[in-house]
Design a protein that fits this description.
- The protein has about 375 residues and is of the alpha+beta class.
- The chain has 2 domains: about 140 residues, Rossmann fold, CATH 3.40.50; about 220 residues, no CATH class.
- The chain is about 30% helix and about 30% strand.
- The chain has 10 helices and 22 strands.
- The protein has an 8-stranded antiparallel β-sheet. The chain has a 5-stranded parallel β-sheet with strand order 2-1-3-6-10, with helices on both faces. It has a 5-stranded antiparallel β-sheet with strand order 9-11-17-18-19, with helices on one face.
- β20 and β21 form a beta hairpin.
- α1 packs across α2.
- The chain starts with 14 loop residues before the first helix and ends with a strand.
- The mean pLDDT is about 95.
- It is an enzyme of class 3 (hydrolase).
- Pfam families: NicX.
- It comes from Candidatus Thalassospirochaeta sargassi.
């Protein structure tokens, strides 16, 4: 604590932001003295200011923070090589505070890491998490207002609710989803394990978004069928979009086969087509492994995630980082999944409001755990 040089000494830091940063460092990450904390951000107002506050909070915890800046990246961009190099030093704590995205790993996407369990991982950040060499949180698209509002929450309550939903999804053979907007979808979950974004990132290998607040799972490959209607917000290759008209999708054997609606549908279609086009071009340029272009192209239409929103302070505001955490919502992603067996260049989270979700178990029983958006646990 001797001779601390704080950003707060040279910038004006809002007390509410400093407190949210303190909670993130103390309660979420539980940073310990002398731990290395790598914070990666962009030279953009809100994420830079949050990063300053996180740096100060880590310094006050007697940790060893380092702050690294790179230009803003979108879903199709590669992170700066220097950023990947810094991540590769395997600090105890990693924080990605991005205006949009951290960026893809240029080297690992061509020559993936191989974990001891045989999993191939195309990002050094993900590899360090998978092998429990670091703990982390990432906040793509975060704003100061969102951070101040949704980080100081009751984490004991969140941990309990997320754990119950995790247990339900882990037992389920499949789920059915309906909604007032017209969704009528079945998603298989056999062989899948749910993941938690419960705000407890205190052990190596643990991490998630901050704001936290979801339980999520990768659908069983090829298992999803039905109608899917997005009626909240959607994420695109270059940012988030608040829907004025619903986006109506047909899903066959785990893939999007048609998209209808207004401007939101057009933008989502454009994002998917860009993911398909870039997959082929990236392979030709040697930016993804030889022979993987068609796989990445196909998976641009894959259903890659089902997530349940569980943060009571979040709402739908057109910022997916917070929107997908809101109560009374689920989100389904189009593109890559979290089990590393459906690789794609895109991962577009999209919201369904007020859903009813029923889990069906191997013994023939079932359980409605979301009823018109109300959590029934």
């Amino acid at each position: 604590m001797q001779n601390m040089q704080l950003f707060n000494d040279i910038t004006t830091q809002e007390p509410e932001l400093a407190e949210a940063a303190r909670i993130a460092v103390r309660d979420v990450l539980r940073v310990k003295p002398d731990e290395k904390v790598l914070i990666i951000t962009n030279p953009v107002g809100d994420v830079a200011e949050i990063s300053y506050a996180l740096y100060d909070a880590a310094l006050k915890a007697d940790a060893k923070p380092v702050l690294v800046f790179q230009p803003v990246k979108d879903q199709m961009s590669f992170a700066a090589d220097e950023v990947i190099g810094a991540i590769g030093t395997a600090p105890e704590v990693l924080i990605s505070m991005s205006a949009e995205k951290l960026g893809k790993d240029r080297a690992a996407i061509v020559n993936p890491w191989k974990a001891e369990d045989g999993t191939e991982i195309d990002n050094t950040f993900h590899y360090l998490m998978h092998t429990k060499k670091t703990r982390a949180f990432w906040s793509p698209g975060v704003t100061k207002e969102l951070f101040k509002k949704t980080v100081p929450i009751d984490y004991l309550r969140l941990k309990k609710e997320a754990g119950v939903v995790e247990e339900i999804l882990n037992r389920a053979q499949y789920v059915s989803i309906t909604s007032p907007g017209g969704t009528n979808l079945k998603i298989g979950l056999k062989g899948r394990t749910a993941m938690l974004d419960n705000g407890d990132f205190s052990a190596p290998g643990e991490g998630g978004n901050l704001p936290a607040g979801e339980t999520f799972i990768s659908p069983e490959l090829g298992s999803s069928n039905g109608r899917l209607v997005f009626d909240g917000s959607i994420s695109l290759y270059n940012g988030d979009y608040m829907l004025e008209q619903p986006v109506d999708l047909k899903i066959i054997d785990g893939f999007v086969t048609s998209i209808e609606g207004g401007e939101g549908a057009r933008l989502l279609q454009k994002t998917i087509e860009l993911g398909e086009k870039n997959a082929v071009e990236f392979e030709a340029a040697g930016r993804i492994p030889a022979g993987s272009g068609e796989i990445y192209k196909k998976n641009a239409r894959n259903l890659g995630e089902l997530g349940i929103g569980l943060n009571p302070a979040a709402g739908i505001i057109g910022n997916m980082l917070g929107d997908e955490k809101a109560y009374r919502t689920i989100h389904i992603a189009i593109g890559s999944n979290y089990d590393e067996d459906a690789k794609a260049l895109i991962h577009c989270d999209c919201l369904v409001k007020d859903p009813t979700v029923t889990a069906y178990f191997a013994d023939g029983s079932s359980r409605v755990f979301l009823d018109g958006g109300d959590l029934k646990i």
